[in-house]
Design goal:
alpha+beta; seven-stranded mixed barrel
Length: 759
């Protein structure tokens, strides 16, 4: 069973437990979220229309002739000024036109070539506009490569190994009706890219350029904003206004300063090590010297707020498969000592010095060599791709100009070198690299690889679901063992017949601390544990911090520091001592305990603090990376503890009318009620709650009902669906529901909200 299948099975089981009502709806919505996360993290995104491999699409650019002349003036080659144009994308199935796109040259030395590479920005003059989910296109000339397939072979290999990598295909480019040649269309890495892959785009995305070696500079985050060549070495591409490098500085600090034991056990809390080990193996076997390992260049880092991990993403693969500008012999360079001697490359070098990570890297090297590189099917795929593009490539009038690659150089590119910087043909390089790598790779056996895990708090506090994702050698058994308040429980064993396993740990009422670990055994008898030390999940509040009041639709109640009326969350320290908030997290996601870290501030005993759920990080440390849903959702307050997490507080927020809040009746450990008069950043005591206004509650009956709903006395009412949309409003003692479909609705009677079920 793969990851997605396991999640479908898990959600189906939950769905079946709720025959009707809001809980079933929540399970269905949770399913959509889980599928998006699982698909993004553990399987490649579909190629889609824009990056189709079934044909060679045509891209047409219509641009004013004066603008085109200006673009090509030598003095403008390195300008990023975008000229307006019309973009047409054409395949056998679609022909779409987008007016007012921006076009400019892209690349570094590529801008000096006769055949230019282009950036096409679909959103420059129409902010937020996307085409098939993307806002920008990188259309690369690939002039260095006489075969014109090296880059695409690299992208295909990344995707075959299921790591985060751009989609790509070949396209024919036409400008003002003239054929400009065959190009590589490569997916641009930006906020839309990470949203497609990781299900969110709220984290920091860094474009890492030479000399981005990840070496330690200082503990000051601002010191990583260095720009020795005019642009930042680590250039932040999201949350630019916030411009906070604390996450990058923490990762680099740990990477360089941790001891070997801590690195082995804790690096994966900072960084997706397993994904990177695959990428490193592919980079080395394809001779990608212009990336991190050798040239400290050409990659992105994205800190995924759902996992707290940095994700590594490569880009620019034109200097691969035997392309060389440095006079190095890439066919036989040692796979474990591939970085430049004497230069800091702490990420790769420390992984190679850590036995467990080195062994996993070795397994991926051998896996690529045996299943993807130089096999009969892989060589045939390269030949088929080369034949597939031949007609378009040979018709390209600009292809031969920059490097004098003639027709024979293209036609023989898989078997014959072209000279100069192309010392090896594609398949010749593959054969030599494979032969040398097989002689270098260590002959090891490993246990199944643990890609990662998630904790699902959907059933909290009654149960915790743990989902484990594996890779590498087949698992013969997966074993979960746990203790409740120090007492051993019956372990759960799975046959391990797939790459995803789901366990549900029941938590009886009264239990306060869960400790668990998962081990995976392979058919070779070797096993691997998920954690170095058992994971701890603690419930209950031990120090006095609680969620105290929330508002999910704020139109006029209170404005933030930017003058905006946004959703807000209030916390209260009802304890006797000050509390530092730096280890606490808010999350509206059942599967992420670290979605948004509270700032490093101290709350005095008895203090209130207000945070804005507005996804506006650039507005300050009190602005979170998510918004609240006014149709209702879960909100968690988590705290990091040694080896685990504490569920400090949890509230299921009901649908709320605009400018009403939901809060604790008297601050601290008290019942939650609806407030007609919210009290942001101050005590709830003395505020007029709807419960207090309606000392004699008006209750709708019968509930559930098939047709008529009664109140008992004339009352003002508003009927809403589960999305919060108003269906009916008025005054009376009954509401006729006959014309509405079966399901869950919410009715507000004299400002008090009730859930009703229509049969």
């Amino acid at each position: 069973m793969n990851c997605l299948s396991a999640i479908v099975k898990r959600v189906s089981e939950l769905y079946a437990r709720f025959p009707f009502g809001l809980l079933r709806l929540k399970v269905a919505l949770a399913f959509l979220v889980l599928v998006k996360i699982a698909a993004a993290q553990y399987a490649p995104v579909e190629q889609g229309v824009l990056f189709t491999h079934s044909e060679i699409p045509k891209m047409h650019i219509q641009i004013d002739s004066d603008s085109l002349d200006q673009l090509y003036l030598e003095e403008n080659w390195y300008s990023d000024h975008e000229y307006p144009a019309v973009f047409v994308f054409e395949t056998a199935e679609v022909s779409d036109t987008l007016e007012d796109v921006g076009i400019r040259f892209r690349g570094n030395t590529a801008r000096e070539k006769f055949k230019k590479s282009f950036k096409i920005s679909l959103n420059t003059f129409h902010p937020g506009r996307k085409y098939h989910g993307v806002e920008k296109l990188n259309v690369n000339a690939e002039t260095n490569d006489p075969s014109m397939i090296r880059s695409r072979l690299g992208w295909n290999l990344y995707r075959a190994k299921e790591v985060t990598a751009s989609r790509s295909n070949h396209v024919e480019l036409y400008i003002n009706g003239e054929y400009y040649g065959l190009y590589q269309n490569i997916e641009h890495i930006d906020d839309e890219f990470v949203d497609t892959w990781f299900g969110n785009k709220n984290g920091n995305l860094y474009k890492c350029l030479y000399p981005a070696n990840l070496d330690f500079v200082s503990n000051n985050p601002d010191d990583y904003k260095m720009a020795p060549f005019g642009e930042r070495t680590y250039e932040i591409k999201t949350n630019e206004a916030w411009d906070n490098y604390s996450d990058l500085a923490a990762f680099i600090g740990f990477l360089n300063q941790s001891n070997d034991t801590d690195l082995n056990c804790e690096l994966e809390s900072f960084f997706n090590v397993q994904s990177y080990l695959k990428i490193a193996a592919i980079d080395i076997l394809t001779g990608n010297w212009d990336g991190y390992i050798y040239n400290q260049n050409n990659y992105y880092l994205y800190r995924n707020p759902l996992t707290n991990q940095f994700e590594y993403m490569p880009y620019d693969l034109d200097n691969t498969w035997g392309i060389d500008w440095l006079g190095q012999e890439w066919t036989n360079r040692n796979i474990y000592n591939w970085s430049q001697s004497g230069e800091p490359r702490p990420l790769f070098n420390r992984l190679m010095d850590t036995p467990e990570f080195r062994d996993i890297f070795s397994w991926h090297i051998r896996d690529v060599l045996e299943n993807y590189l130089g096999t009969d099917s892989a060589n045939l795929a390269a030949e088929n791709l080369h034949n597939f593009i031949s007609e378009s490539a040979l018709a390209d009038p600009y292809r031969p100009i920059d490097w004098d690659f003639d027709e024979a150089d293209f036609l023989n590119a898989l078997e014959s070198a072209a000279g100069d910087h192309v010392e090896y043909a594609v398949l010749n390089f593959v054969g030599l690299r494979k032969e040398s790598a097989l002689s270098q790779v260590e002959n090891i056996s490993i246990a199944p690889i643990i890609l990662g895990y998630t904790e699902d708090f959907s059933d909290w506090p009654n149960a915790l679901a743990v989902e484990l994702y594996t890779d590498g050698p087949a698992a013969s058994q997966v074993l979960l063992e746990w203790r409740l308040d120090g007492i051993e429980q019956t372990s759960i064993t799975s046959a391990g017949d797939g790459d995803a396993e789901v366990f549900e740990i029941p938590i009886p009422e009264g239990a306060s601390q869960l400790e668990y670990n998962v081990s995976v055994s392979g058919t070779n008898g070797m096993s691997r544990s998920l954690f170095c030390d058992d994971r701890i999940v603690r419930k209950g509040n031990s120090d006095g911090l609680v969620l105290n009041e929330v508002m999910t639709s704020n139109s006029s109640t209170v404005a933030d520091n930017a003058g905006e009326f946004d959703d807000w969350i209030e916390v209260y320290n009802f304890g006797d001592v000050p509390l530092n908030l730096s280890t606490y997290y808010f999350s509206d996601n059942n599967r992420s305990t670290v979605k948004w870290a509270l700032p490093d501030v101290t709350m005095e005993a008895g203090d209130f603090s207000l945070f804005w759920a507005d996804r506006d990080l650039e507005q300050g440390a009190y602005h979170s990376n998510f918004r609240l849903n006014n149709s209702g959702e879960n909100l968690f307050l988590f705290r990091e503890i040694s080896n685990g997490v504490e569920v400090v507080d949890f509230i299921s927020i009901p649908p709320l009318p605009t400018d009403y809040s939901y809060g604790r009746e008297t601050d601290g450990p008290a019942d939650w009620v609806l407030f007609e008069n919210p009290t942001p950043d101050s005590s709830n005591s003395g505020a007029l709650s709807v419960r207090e206004r309606n000392s004699i509650a008006v209750l709708p009956y019968p509930n559930p009902t098939a047709d008529m709903l009664n109140f008992g006395k004339p009352s003002s009412y508003i009927l809403r669906d589960v999305s919060g949309r108003v269906l009916l409003s008025g005054k009376g003692s009954t509401v006729n529901l006959q014309r509405f479909n079966s399901g869950v609705y919410f009715i507000e009677i004299d400002h008090r909200i009730h859930k009703i079920s229509k049969l």
